[in-house]
Amino acid sequence: SALTQPPSASGSPGQSVTISCTGTSGDVGDYKYVSWYQQYPGKAPKLLIYEVTKRPSGVPDRFSASKSGNTASLTVSGLQAEDEADYYCSSYAGSNNLVFGGGTKLTVL
Amino acid sequence: EVKLVESGGDLVQTGGSLRLSCAASGFTFGNYDMHWVRQPPGKGPEWLSHISSGSGSIDYADSVKGRFTISRDNAKNSLYLQMNSLRDEDTALYYCVRTYCSGGTCYSRSSFDIWGQGTMVTVSS
């Protein structure tokens, strides 16, 4: 089953926003392989976070992530207008399967 | 420039077949595990299939197992997805994606760093 994300989140420029991603003990809770992606309208997703907390080179350190139990979280600090996008989490789910979340639309007020 | 370009998407009738292709350039294609991921309009992505660099390991999501077949031709830097018995719920933008590798470790079951622009598949009766 897909991971559960809130449909929307918002914050003002400069603020911090946290997006949750809830799974089960069969995916998020059991594995350290949670990723986060940013997607602009009409564009392909971009990898922001891998292995729960790690950032690929080139991703600003304003993006951070963590996991507790069956819930992973992405925090965007120092919100900027360009952060307005859709955000998706994903997790390895065992048996060579991968599941994505339904996505969260981040609005910068 | 590292690039993936999908092609082959089309409008097809329910029960029909389609073959998607993905042309890779700008990197050593044969060194990377590859995947297909789809995204229905307005919804989240769905992982479909994985193929290892040498085609020795192949996996499918339950939703497409037995209907879709992934393959690759490293000599042609190309990835393919043969889709049979198409259903209305297969309507989506189909992406070819590359496994993310860093520091000698490849996250072939979890993270994707290069995505194509996608090719649209519409299934309708």
Give structural notes:
With 109 residues, chain A is mostly beta strands. Helix content of chain A is 0%, strand content 44%. Chain A has no helices and nine strands. In chain A, strands 1, 3, 4, 7, 8 and 9 form a six-stranded mixed β-sheet that branches. The radius of gyration of chain A is 13 Å and the shape is globular. Chain A starts with 7 loop residues before the first strand and ends with a strand. By secondary structure, chain B is mostly beta strands. In chain B, strand 5 and strand 6 form a beta hairpin. Chains A and B meet through strand 3, strand 7 and strand 8 of A and strand 5 and strand 12 of B.
Strand content of chain B: over 45%
Largest sheet report of chain B: 7 strands, mixed
Largest interface, by Cβ-Cβ below 8 angstroms: which chains and how many residues each?
A-B, 26 and 22 residues
Q: What's the helix count of chain A? A: 0
The helix fraction of chain B, in percent, is under 10%
Order of helices and strands of chain B: EEEEEEEEEEEEE
| Percent range for β-strand residues of chain A | 35-45%
Multimerization state: heterodimer
Q: Give the distance, in angstroms, between the N- and C-terminal Cα atoms of chain B.
A: 40 Å
**Helix and strand composition category of chain A:** mainly beta
Order of helices and strands of chain A: EEEEEEEEE
Largest sheet of chain A: 6 strands, mixed
Gyration radius of chain A (Cα, Å) is: 13 Å
Continuous helix count of chain B: 0
Annotation keywords:
heterodimer, A: 109 residues, mainly beta, 3-stranded antiparallel beta sheet, B: 125 residues, 7-stranded mixed beta sheet, 4-stranded antiparallel beta sheet
Show the helix and strand layout:
The complex is a heterodimer of chains A (109) and B (125).
Chain A: E1 8-11, E2 17-22, E3 34-39, E4 46-49, E5 63-68, E6 71-76, E7 85-92, E8 98-100, E9 104-108
Parallel strand pairs in A: 1-9
Antiparallel strand pairs in A: 2-6, 3-4, 3-7, 5-6, 7-8, 7-9
Chain B: E1 3-7, E2 11-13, E3 18-25, E4 34-39, E5 46-51, E6 58-60, E7 68-73, E8 78-83, E9 92-99, E10 101-102, E11 105-106, E12 112-115, E13 119-124
Parallel strand pairs in B: 2-13
Antiparallel strand pairs in B: 1-3, 3-8, 4-5, 4-9, 5-6, 7-8, 9-12, 9-13, 10-11
